[in-house]
UniProtKB/TrEMBL annotation, chain A:
This is Acyl-CoA dehydrogenase family protein. SUPFAM superfamilies: Acyl-CoA dehydrogenase C-terminal domain-like. The keyword Flavoprotein applies. Residues 195-308 form the Acyl-CoA dehydrogenase/oxidase C-terminal domain. Pfam families: Acyl-CoA_dh_1. It comes from Streptacidiphilus cavernicola. Keywords: FAD, Flavoprotein, Oxidoreductase.
From TrEMBL, chain B:
Residues 132-233 form the Acyl-CoA oxidase/dehydrogenase middle domain. Belongs to the acyl-CoA dehydrogenase family. This is Acyl-CoA dehydrogenase family protein. The lineage of its organism: Bacteria, Bacillati, Actinomycetota, Actinomycetes, Kitasatosporales. SUPFAM superfamilies: Acyl-CoA dehydrogenase C-terminal domain-like, Acyl-CoA dehydrogenase NM domain-like.
Length: 330, 400
């Protein structure tokens, strides 16, 4: 996109996020549908629909950061950025006669029940980040992509992100198969965009705790003037910067480097975010003191999102053991 | 509640992490040159700095030093990225990095006169002059502005009196970038006077009468740093860099380049050891405990994050931002990478730490391990970096 065009889109997402952010852990049930509808109206699902795509991965990553910066119930990742990319990769929009008409074309992605990248067909699956979706795309380890119908909602520690079951008898419609390079691109893309959303959340929450440290007074002075508090916030800032550099670079690699290299950069980014975004948010909570320990405060919404996000797609243990050895020479 | 994003952390537009088009060609040319001019043998008794100096001269003879310094001053007029690429190539073949003169060169470029740049920069790049940095003193470490060394003006020159400490490689250097107080700030007459405002910077030839250099042995056994005694040493006015009282901004420019991952050439050194650890993880699969395997993975992540961070900094610098307080991020990330790396290597290769025979009193890696402990001290301690981030990036209030 042109720089001006991108800034326009970014500002649309920013305005959307400010308008639809939830103020508490119990949003009005009608809010979810209204917010998702409003997000759909921004038309972001088409950003990478054409060949070559209008938007770079880095631009999408920046939008994911914006979306992550507020507590939102909407699915930007699953339905707007991830599933359409998958459909683009298999180069095959589902033809209408393949899908039962009541299911509708709105897709999210399917993950393993523990939210990691899924195993082969027949293993336990859930539809992740599924607000507004009617079906979920399952990518098997061999690259086969199938579309599955959804069951009822599943409770999750991340109170805002929608998750639904995928019934074991859900009829699977095979859409195609990703070759090795496309499979790597897909995994790298998913890891990078999830990491970006989590970085956006961590950056925003740390920023809020810095603001709080300026305002809150104890012992007759702002708590942000205590060196112990300053050092906590400096550390959180460095962690957020490290996450930002890693995710932005991973996104750039998807735009410019071969998929194997992009996948390594994406794994590095997710590993950094898994550990550092969580540490940064924990520090922010500490600076808020007791107020951040309440149900009413947004802190736990950020913490839940990042805590669960840090085990989604790939856990730290998965990533570090993979990255501990040199990439096999292909 | 409002969320303020300071300009320093605004990262909401795309960045170009790519290499300039001609970089591949430069890398290839350098590799070809390196094949014909390999790293020389280090003599049995040759001190490391002397050996590195020979290497510096050799690199310079090929035109590989000061790529980002203007041609008028002996450089190549290319970008920082070009210099970083050479660093990278050296790291990849396990040779020592480019000489760490980037931060001194930038101080001269920003604060020196045209005449001074012509006089000192070409000889600095070529290695004819070796420079050291005389900032810290026994009573002024973190609190650098509290320095006591004075430069008193007398008939067109200065007389310098005082003591410097931790001056790395002064015993091998011809010139010292020296900070001294030219005038006492007097808060009684000028309430706005800060101790910073009376500091000036000089280029001091270390063979001047009145200079005594006394090496101090470092914990790892190396002869790295020195004490510098200055006894009524005469410095000419033409050797003052910048106007009187501009020593503080010059020092801050120097240290922020010194903290910048780009300019220090440490990264390639980390890369070599990280890859050794990873090869070992592959070759000893099943032997290393899972916890240690994860630590190796974590070292690789630290290292790659640092590489990504450096590329981001470069992109920002090319987009017109100079090294500022954010280089404290770089410093803390380098420290994190280096300290975890050597702690991990200690567990993976214990034989190379606890053997004997090196000046450190341990195996070949032991000295490097000890030096990694200094990473959170030199160039401003980790606590000072956090103070800088809190005050100058986040704008948090001071006590009182
Ligand atoms: C290997 C090495 C090479 C060096 N090379 C050079 C060189 O070439 N030229 C040069 O000029 N200097 C050099 N130095 C000196 C270095 O810059 C100083 O050691 C450093 O700035 C710390 O000063 P200090 O040693 O006096 O410690 P101090 O300032 O006394 O600090 C002691 C401890 O107190 C903490 N502390 C101090 N002030 C604060 C504060 N305000 N808030 C919180 N904590 C604080 C520090 O973090 C530290 O943990 C080198 C040092 C080393 C280790």
């Amino acid at each position: 996109m042109q720089a001006e065009e991108f800034m326009l889109v970014r500002d649309l997402v920013r305005t959307f996020a400010t308008r639809f952010r939830v103020e508490s852990a119990d949003p009005d049930p009608s809010h979810r549908a209204a917010a998702q509808k409003a997000l759909g109206e921004l038309g972001l699902a088409e950003l990478r629909g054409s060949t070559p795509p209008d938007a770079t991965v880095q631009e999408c990553a920046l939008l994911a950061e914006e979306h992550g910066s507020r507590p939102l119930t909407t699915s930007l990742l699953g339905t707007v950025l991830l599933a359409p990319e998958l459909l683009r990769l298999i180069g095959d929009q589902m033809s209408p006669d393949q899908v039962s008409p009541e299911a509708g074309p709105s897709q999210t992605i399917a993950l393993a029940a523990d939210l990691r990248f899924p195993g082969p067909a027949g293993t336990d699956l859930v539809a992740w980040d599924c607000e507004g979706a009617d079906r979920a795309l399952h990518v098997a380890p061999d690259g086969t992509v199938t579309s599955l119908a959804l069951g009822p909602a599943v409770p999750s520690a991340d109170l805002l992100r929608g998750i639904r079951s995928v019934p074991p008898d859900s009829p699977a419609v095979t859409l195609g198969r990703l070759d090795a390079d496309r499979l790597m691109h897909w995994q790298a893309y998913a890891l990078t965009l999830l990491s970006s959303e989590l970085v956006g959340a961590a950056r925003s929450f740390v920023g809020q705790s810095v603001d709080y440290a300026r305002e809150r007074r104890q012992y007759g002075r702002a708590i942000g003037s205590f060196q112990a508090v300053q050092h906590l916030l400096a550390d959180a800032t460095v962690l957020v910067e490290a996450c930002t550099s890693a995710t932005r670079y991973a996104a750039w690699c998807l735009d410019h480097e071969p998929p194997a290299q992009a996948l390594t950069a994406a794994r590095v980014a997710k590993a950094e975010v898994n550990a550092s975004a969580l540490d940064a948010v924990s520090i922010g909570m500490q600076v808020f003191g007791g107020i951040a320990q309440t149900w009413e405060h947004v802190a736990h919404l950020y913490l839940r999102r990042i805590l669960l996000g840090s085990t989604t797609l790939a856990t730290t243990a998965d990533l570090l053991t993979t990255l501990a050895e040199p990439e096999p020479v292909r | 509640m409002t969320v303020t994003v300071t300009a320093a952390t605004a990262t909401d537009t795309p960045l170009d992490f790519g290499d300039p088009a001609d970089l591949d060609q430069l890398r290839r040319r350098f590799r070809a040159w390196l094949a014909e001019h390999p790293l020389p043998e280090r003599g049995a008794d040759e001190p490391l700095p002397v050996f590195l100096h020979r290497w510096h001269r050799q690199l310079h003879s090929g035109g590989w030093v000061g790529l980002d310094v203007p041609q008028a001053y002996g450089g190549q007029g290319l970008s920082t990225l070009h210099q970083v690429a050479i660093s990278d190539e050296l790291g990849a073949c396990q040779a020592p990095g480019i000489p760490r003169i980037g931060y001194l060169a930038h101080a001269l470029l920003e604060f020196g006169s045209e005449e001074q740049c012509r006089r000192w920069l070409p000889r600095m790049l070529s290695g004819e002059d070796t420079w050291c940095q005389g900032f810290s003193e026994p009573g002024a470490g973190s609190d650098l502005a509290g320095m006591a060394t004075t430069a008193t003006r007398q008939d067109g020159h200065y007389l310098v009196r005082g003591q410097k400490l931790w001056t790395s490689y002064a015993q091998f250097s011809g010139l010292c970038l020296l900070l001294a107080r030219t005038e006492r700030a007097d808060p009684a007459t000028d309430p706005s006077a800060r101790p910073h405002d009376s500091i000036s910077a000089f280029a001091l030839p270390l063979d001047r009468a009145g200079v005594t250099v006394r090496p101090l042995r470092a914990a790892n056994g190396d002869d790295e740093f020195c004490e510098l005694f200055l006894d009524d040493v005469r410095i000419e006015e033409s050797e003052r860099i910048g106007a009187e009282g501009t020593g503080w901004p010059l020092a801050m420019t120097t240290v922020s380049y010194e903290r910048n991952a780009l300019d220090t050439g440490h990264i390639s050194r980390y890369g070599v050891l990280v890859e050794r650890l990873r090869r070992s993880a592959r070759d000893r699969r099943g032997e290393l405990p899972d916890g240690l395997l994860s630590e190796i993975g974590r070292c690789y992540v630290d290292y790659q994050v640092l590489v990504a961070h450096t590329r981001r900094r470069t992109a920002e610098r090319l987009a017109g931002r100079t090294a500022g307080p954010e280089s404290s991020y770089d410093k803390l990330l380098m420290t994190r990478t280096e300290q975890r790396l050597y702690e991990t290597a200690l567990r993976v290769f214990p034989g190379e730490f606890f053997g004997e025979g090196e000046s450190s009193g341990g195996g070949p890696l032991f000295g490097d391990y000890l030096y990694s402990r200094a990473a959170s001290v030199y160039g401003g301690t980790s606590q000072i970096q956090r103070n800088i981030i809190a005050k100058r990036v986040l704008g948090l209030p001071s006590a009182g």
